[in-house]
Amino acid sequence: MPEFEIQHITRYIYDSPVRDSANQIILFPIKDEYQDVLKQEIIVTGHPIIDSHIDYYGNEVGSFTYSDPHSLLVINSKILVSTRHRPYPVNDIFPAQQWEDLKPLQHMVPYIDFLRQEYFEGFEELKELVDKLKGHDDIPYQVALRFCEYVYKNFNYIKGVTTVETTLDEIWKLKAGVCQDFAHILTEMLRMIKVPARYVSGYICTDKNGMRGEGATHAWTEAYIPDYGWLGLDPTNNIIANENHVRLAVGRNFMDCSPVKGVYKGSSGHRLEVAVTFGDDGLLLHKEEVADTLAPQPVPAVNTVVKNSYQRHMELLQQQQQQQQQ
Question: Distances from the Cα of 164 to the Cαs of 25, 175, 180, 185, in angstroms?
């Protein structure tokens, strides 16, 4: 039964003093039979009171407001979590019966949101691919593993080419992104074959060098398997999420699980730094890009046109093509 000591620091540095910073945090690990929270401490600049509640998806959500003028806001979460290995699904149930067992879930409240598909321009193309990958004699567990492997092998892991606002269509065209993008694509693929799928945020804690997502917040997918329950699938690493994955929250997508988001009054200029460390030695320190979380937004919003990463990527390709033609 492994234990993980995790420190997650979110730091907002503002160009000039701001005030009335209202934030929502989802930094409280899930508590169930496979995960226990042994200790947690959250310290916020100014020591505001953190109110908490349980949201629709069962996540613990905290909220606070720091009213005094400030040029720096730090949210420091320290947790000690123990996890247990979860047995894998078995293949001793006839495939036809398992697919039949999934059909009633389309009308059951706990699963409806996790079956709702998001239409995008590449929907039909992805649907055609999904139908080809789904074998006629395969059980949902086998199909889910095959989908996970497809995303891992066909999407490039590149930091900075996407943001939290990048659409499915942009991810599908780029065939690249980070863990949240991989999770969104896999989730959509599973929902296309009527397998409930949900987005998971958390951490991956492992001493295997080169594991994607180490030293940072991580994201993966959970698929609902008949006679088993929720199975974690990590398409970023093509593995089943188990005792080395610490879960913070589940939801339909990233927006339901964002670790930190909020608003404030003041200048729009700010810099965001996120660092996640594991253990006492401070190894695996990682500063995330602003794209990996929802930064607090100024109120009122500034009327500025911002190009997303996909637009910048396409413009760069066009410039390169023009240079080659000259």
Answer: 16, 16, 8, 14
For residue 291, what are the domain limits? Answer: 3-83+257-298
Per-residue confidence band for 263, with pLDDT thresholds at 50, 70 and 90: very high
**Distance (Å, rounded) from C-alpha 98 to C-alpha 176?**
33
182 and 235 inside one domain = yes
316 to each of 192, 283, 287, how far by Cα in Å? Answer: 33, 35, 25
Do the beta carbons of residue 169 and residue 196 sit within 8 Å?
Answer: no
Among the listed residues 309, 311, 111, the one whose alpha carbon sits nearest the alpha carbon of residue 196: 111
**Domain-embedded: residue 123:** yes
Q: Which two tokens stand for residue 43?
A: 């310290």
For 7-35, write each residue's pLDDT tens digit.
Answer: 999 999 999 999 999 999 999 999 999 99
Tell me how many domains the chain contains.
2
Q: Is residue 37 part of a domain?
A: yes
